[in-house]
Design goal:
Elements (H helix, E strand, L loop, with lengths): L1 H21 L3 E6 L7 H16 L3 E6 L2 H10 L6 E2 L2 E2 L3 H25 L4 E5 L6 E5 L8 E6 L2 H8 L3 E5 L1 E3 L5 E3 L2 H12 L3 E6 L17 E3 L3 H6 L7 H13 L4 E6 L5 H7 L6 E4 L1
Parallel strand pairs: 1-2, 1-11, 2-8, 5-8, 11-13, 12-14
Antiparallel strand pairs: 3-4, 6-7, 9-10, 13-14
Length: about 280
């Protein structure tokens, strides 16, 4: 027992300089749909976010919800279609996307944060015209390409002590609603906020030199290395757009971007508040 207590004390002492580094700074957590499938893990993640908020870090959550959208479409008899990794979104699908993302998924996360003792408010990119968009490609229907980001609703909430939890639905000046890729939205919002760090929580350990060998995890990558890693096939398939969003965030002024495994309990705390870290860190 004494050994356990000593280890706990050592862990807290190790966290202190990291807490000092991030206190008063903004970090953005991009919480991916594929990392949100386990209810217990979701509860732990939102508890960790509340902890970060309570030690003085200004935390913003941007979330996806692809699996939940696919499940609801399936229940209504609609088949999910994708082009270049993006969901084809007709009018009926857009209604379901908005209902699932801004309704169920968003409010479930708000509820979990509140249950953990935090103060959270859920909003969508439509609120305050926060995410302005236009149609990305006619083949994709109501999939949006971001034209502008207004983060004042987010900073207002942060200033009032709330954790903003953002669903990635956007709109244009005419009021048309668009489905926005959550990784893209997270990068743009993090840049506009001048965030110190962005964490992308997903269902992989990070960037691996050999995708079948967890021991080949690359703990640190410079954005200048990314084109070569794509050329070598180390970054491929669905990882390409995800990592391009990490690069985009860095280019927009975010100091560090992390890809971490959201399936690992307390992975966020291990990455931010320990010396060893956990996933892959991207820097300029």
């Amino acid at each position: 027992m004494a050994l356990d207590n000593a280890l706990r004390a050592q862990t807290l002492a190790e966290a202190l300089p990291h807490i000092q580094k991030y206190s008063g700074k903004t970090i953005l957590i991009k919480y991916g749909g594929n990392a949100m499938q386990n209810d217990e893990l979701k509860r732990l993640v939102m508890g960790d976010i509340v902890l970060l908020s309570m030690i003085g870090i200004r935390v913003v959550v941007v979330h996806g919800g692809g699996p939940e959208i696919s499940d609801m479409l399936s229940r209504t008899g609609k088949k999910s279609e994708f082009v270049d990794g993006l969901r084809v979104t007709d009018g009926e699908t857009m209604d379901i996307v908005q209902m699932v993302l801004s309704g169920k998924v968003n409010k479930d996360l708000v509820n979990l944060a509140e249950n953990a003792g935090g103060r959270a408010i859920g909003i969508s990119g439509v609120d305050g015209r926060m995410i302005k968009a236009r149609q990305k490609d006619q083949r994709l229907g109501q999939v949006g390409e971001i034209t502008d980001v207004n983060v004042k609703p987010i900073t207002d909430m942060l200033d009032m002590g709330y954790i903003p939890i953002v669903s990635t639905v956007g709109c244009d000046a005419q009021g048309n609603i668009y489905n926005i890729n959550a990784d893209t939205a997270a990068a743009r919002i993090a840049g506009a906020l001048g965030a110190e760090s962005m964490l992308t929580m997903t269902d992989i350990a990070g960037l691996l030199r050999d995708k079948d060998d967890p021991a080949t995890l690359m703990s640190r990558v410079s954005v200048s290395e990314v084109p070569q890693l794509i050329g070598e096939g180390i970054i491929s398939g669905g990882m390409i757009p995800k990592i391009q969003c990490c690069v985009e965030a860095i280019r927009r002024g975010v100091s560090k971007v992390f890809i971490i495994d959201g399936r690992v309990p307390h992975s966020m705390l291990m990455e931010l508040l320990t010396d060893a870290g956990l996933g892959t860190m991207f820097t300029a």
